[in-house]
Amino acid sequence: MTELITYRGRAITSEDILFIEKLIAAHPGESRRTLSTKLCEAWQWRQANGALRDMVCRGMLLMLHRAGHIELPPVKFVPHNPLAKRVRPAPVLLDTTPIAVTLRDLQPLEFMLVRRSGEEPLFNSLMEEHHYLGYEQPVGEHLKYLVWANGRPVACVAWSSAPRHIGVRDRYIGWDQETRRRNIRFLAYNTRFLILPWVKVPHLASHILGRMAARLSTDWEQVYGHPIYFAETFVDTERFRGTCYRAANWVVLGKTTGRGKQSNSYVPNRSIKEVLGYPLTKHFRQLLGSEQ
User: Which of the listed CATH numbers 3.40.630.30, 3.40.50.1110, 3.40.430.10, 3.30.70.1490 matches domain 103-287?
Assistant: First the structure.
């Protein structure tokens, strides 16, 4: 069995190419999307929640087509891409009366999972208007939370699938490339954390991080069918010190290289950030496959 190429961690062999060619020949006139679905079903190529890995498969087929390994049928139509000209979230009118109390007086806090709910537009708008990075639509597995106190939103927290490779994180976990490819889905990346600017409550941020750590894995498993064993985030040290993460017992793992995944040199092309991590279980290395 000869390996020809690797795509998103999957080795594509000469036998795989032959199988794909036979699949295309057996379904003349079918669209590329239909062929992708049939290939996923034949290979049992699925996400952790059971859904077919259709988008990944289509990307692989296109790559093989462009490399001359297979001949895909002509594109039948170009569908409208709603993400190409996404309308930015509109501002919302809220009570911005300052909240300056103790954490005890602010209680109880309500954590609301808002993805695919009527409150998701509020979350998106608050991030767009008040987070220095603005709102960005996550791709892949992700969760969004609004934190409420006395009927008013006080914070927003967003989590998504972890980046595939971060050197300092991978060394901290201690896994090899194949183990990382297989188990990266058990990590979650804290992409956004916003305390609304009129909320001035000491220790609120670290308290929210602690509460999130206690529920993140359970919530993720309910939505995507698998738990989370390790959380991570980046801190732009030119803007922030990451004090709330340290206060919540997150571990400083090191720094990024400053090179994005599209970089083709060793020269940094973006700001260098501090990488912090938080094990959600003391057995995280064993569960992630880095301890045999």
Answer: 3.40.630.30
